[in-house]
Amino acid sequence: MKHRTRYRNYHDGPLAVATLALSDAVHALCGPQTAQTPGGHTGRLDSRLQRLYDALNDTSVSGHRRASPAAMIPAWIDALKLKMAINTRVAEITAQHTHRLAPTTTGQLDQLRRKNYRPQDTATLRTIARELQSFVIAIDDLFAAKPVILFDPRNPTEWAPCPQCGHHHAYRHTDDGQTIRTPALLLTVERGSWCTHCHATWPPDRLGILAAMLGHPTPTGVLT
After folding, report:
1. Is position 73 within any domain?
2. Is the pLDDT of residue 2 over 50?
3. In this structure, what are the phi and psi dihedrals at residue 168, rounded to the nearest 5 degrees?
4. Which residue, 23, 30, 140, 165, is most buried by CB atoms nearer than 10 A?
């Protein structure tokens, strides 16, 4: 019964693809997840949505595992805002397609997944799937390890310049419409380094090269 929707629309062409995309997006948001442990074993995690809810009662939110209580407040607010946005939007979408709304966001997502759709709903399903996937990305970003800021070894009070474009900083817009200055170069061992100004990237296997270009020692955890 769980995956009946996938097979019921098998001969409907684009509708089948759109229905499957919706089912996958719902699962990515509220289905259990798996992760590799350091020992190479596969572990089971709660759903992204549940981890977001749990984060509001936790002391470690948004990658800040050792932050002071004061430093935790912005991360807690980000988690709360994202939770409210997801709950509100999922309820709005589900209300457009069902007569009786389930009391929880997870239940509403299940309603969307189980509903029988028509071929003329294909474009709408694609749009819903993309919006749900954007929530998946937002949750992943919230819990991702925060990037390291690189400083210029020749002038330790300055952010390091991007070797590609030469910029030390970039600008981004906040939710309240302000424009703030941010470092150009950011780095994580898992993702590598990237420039927020020109969008040049250095994958993890090239971090040693980037460090040499900047005059830095090779970052910890990088193989050379």
Report:
1. yes
2. no
3. -90, -25
4. 30
